[in-house]
Specification:
Low-confidence stretches: none
Distance between the termini: 39 Å
Strand order of the largest sheet: 3-2-1-4-5-6-7
Mean pLDDT: 96
Shape: globular
Structural class: alpha/beta
Bound molecules: nicotinamide-adenine-dinucleotide
Radius of gyration: 17 Å
Length: 247
């Protein structure tokens, strides 16, 4: 069986849940060797075992800057090289601007931006020339929804960072692109105590396609960007958002 990622090795942060998990499963189905990271050991073990011999799970917190080199070393030690890095781990917190504390701000910045920045740096040090980096952004980089100030600032910065990295890494033929989800049916808001009904009621009506997206729909996009089919695409931001940011 030939897959679209045969011979590739990938590292996916936040690969034990939601969008990252769907990406990990799709990548393995398309022939890649995949290392996932996350914070919860039980779901890391569950996903890693479902990926079989071509999967590996590592418990790691992206806000621990000292952890990034170790994670990349383990991914390369297991599968011999690194071709694809998906910087996907993230949190979303709805907090009105005036109620946002310094601790709230630091938490989301440390995970969504600083953790992503130094994760990519560690990955690039071991990545093969010709590799692909996919950063999980969000529609909030181009839309201003209330109560998402710090979160949106991280995703706007991720989009900007992709332009610079695409430029700087072009000499090594490493492509850097952003995959920007709209509202997707994952646990991300539930972790903050926000019920699925609230998301359906408040977000679905603003989506032209009138439904939440599914993690698999982001896996389709990540697969394309990671594969050689996207060989002439770098520095770009693709929205899989039911039209939220486009219409
Ligand atoms: P999710 O909560 O199901 O998954 C988040 C993942 O990030 C988990 O695997 C978790 O372990 C990991 N993670 C969070 N903090 C971490 C940390 N400190 N260290 C290591 N891993 C950490 O949510 P999801 O919706 O799949 O989110 C994935 C990405 O998609 C995030 O970057 C999020 O901002 C982005 N996104 C999601 C939506 C949506 O509606 N679900 C919309 C736009 C963007």
């Amino acid at each position: 069986m030939s897959g679209r990622l045969d011979t590739k090795t990938a590292l996916i942060t936040g690969g034990n849940s939601g969008i990252g998990r769907a990406i990990a499963e799709r990548f393995v189905a398309e022939g890649a060797n995949v290392t996932i990271t996350g914070r919860d050991q039980a779901t890391i073990d569950e996903v890693a075992s479902s990926l079989g011999d071509r999967g590996q799970g590592i418990r790691s917190d992206v806000s621990d800057m000292a952890s990034h080199a170790d994670v990349v070393d383990k991914a390369v030690a297991k599968f011999g090289k690194l071709d694809v890095f998906v910087a996907n781990a993230g949190i979303a917190e709805m907090i009105p601007f005036l109620e946002t504390t310094e601790a709230d701000y630091d938490r989301v910045m440390d995970i969504n931006l600083k953790g992503l920045f130094f994760g990519v740096q560690a990955a690039v040090r071991h990545m093969n020339d010709g590799g692909s980096i996919v950063l999980t952004g969000s529609v909030v980089s181009v839309k201003g929804f209330p109560a998402f100030s710090a979160y949106s600032a991280t995703k706007g910065a991720v989009r900007t960072l992709a332009r610079v990295l695409a430029s700087e890494l072009a000499e090594r033929k490493i492509r850097v692109n952003v995959s920007s989800p709209g509202p997707i049916a994952t646990h991300i808001f539930g972790r903050q105590g926000i019920e699925r009904d609230f998301i359906e009621d408040n977000f679905t009506q603003m989506v032209p396609l009138k439904r939440l997206g599914e993690p698999d729909e982001l896996a389709n996009l990540a697969l394309f960007l990671a594969s050689d089919e996207a060989s002439y695409i770098t520095g770009a931001d693709f929205h899989a958002d039911g039209g939220v940011a486009q219409v």
